[in-house]
Amino acid sequence: MAAQVEGPFNYTATGVLGDQRNSMLQNELHLRDKVGHIKSRGYQLPMQSFVYGLPNEKREYSAADALASWKLSHYSLNSDPALRGWTGNYLPKGGASKTKAASERDFMTMNKAAVADGLVTTEETNDYRATHDIRRSPWNRKELSGKMRSRRLPPTMVFGIPSRPSTPIYEVIEHKYQDQWMKERQNLLSNKRAEEVKAGRSNGIVYETRASLLRTYQNPVDPAPLWQLPRFTKSAKAQIQSFRTNTDKSASFNYLKTDRVGRQGDFGIGIYEKPKN
Question: CA 130 to CA 105: how far, in whole Å?
Fold first, then answer.
């Protein structure tokens, strides 16, 4: 039997639902592991001629490159023929100004002024700083160092963590702490037992007797009647008369009494007994 030629798709699950493409070799779902080998990943390595690392760019620095990084102020080319052909900026004849070198921009004041004028965005703030150059004198570190008071420490002060006190070995040998704990425990148990005995003897329940009940009894008092207007106590009469005459009223009450048995009971259907034979 001829040996099978190993290819990139021998340990893959491709070719089942379509053609084998090189893009399948980068998909983890199509790859299968080799028995006895470490698991491979679906990333293609570069060619053998590839060199790993950062390239070292060779650049020849000349005087032109060094002078190109200078930031000089504007200067006329015609004023100095020796500098013709130079495209950079130039310093004035007097050199750098001493006022700007001796001062620095006060950004706090400029920010406050910009907010007061209603400028809050970044572009508006940058434009305001470009048109309003507010400066202040720089901080003098020597003066500030003289004003700042250093904390004075006592000469006997020792830095570090205090060491642990020595173990009282003599008290440990004679079991002093054990005896002290046992005494405290015995006192605690005796106090607890005494409280339980005291609570069992007097449970706090007071039994009432006939004499104590009669002593604390109060006769019931009828509540005071509701307040009424004096003019309605005697002359007030009902505005609606349900009966035309007193005879009709008494007859109605008599009928109510006779039919009272039929309206009694739990469900209002009356109380009746079964007939007895």
Answer: 11
To 5 degrees, how large is the angle CA 212–CA 218–CA 219? 135
CA angle 172–173–179, rounded 5-degree value? 65
Which helix (H) or strand (E) covers residue 26, if one does? none
Coil/strand/helix, residue 72: coil
CA 35 centroid distance within chain? 52
Cβ(7)–Cβ(25) below 8 Å: no
Which residues of the chain register pLDDT less than 50?
72-100
Q: DSSP states of 145-171 as a string?
A: HHHSPPPPPPTT---SPPPPPPP-HHH
Which residues have C-beta within 8 Å of that of residue 124, sequence separation ≥ 6?
Answer: 114
Structure tokens at 205: 């329940």
Q: Tell me the β-bridge partners of 104.
A: 136
pTM of the model as a whole: 0.20
State phi, psi for 172 to the nearest 5 degrees. Answer: -70, -40
Element (H, E) at 125: helix 122-131
CB atoms closer than 10 angstroms to residue 24 = 19
Contacts of 271 (CB under 8 A, 6+ apart): 261, 264, 265
Rounded alpha-carbon distances, angstroms, from residue 254 to 247, 251, 258, 269: 11, 5, 6, 20
Place of tokens 């009928």: 255
Give residue-wise pLDDT tens across range 170-223: 998 999 999 999 999 999 999 999 998 887 776 667 788 999 888 888 888 899
d(CA 62, CA 69): 12
Q: Any idea what DSSP says for residue 117?
A: T
Cα–Cα distance measured from residue 269 to residue 277, given in angstroms and rounded to the nearest whole number:
24
Q: What is the DSSP string of 207-222?
A: ---HHHHHHH-----P
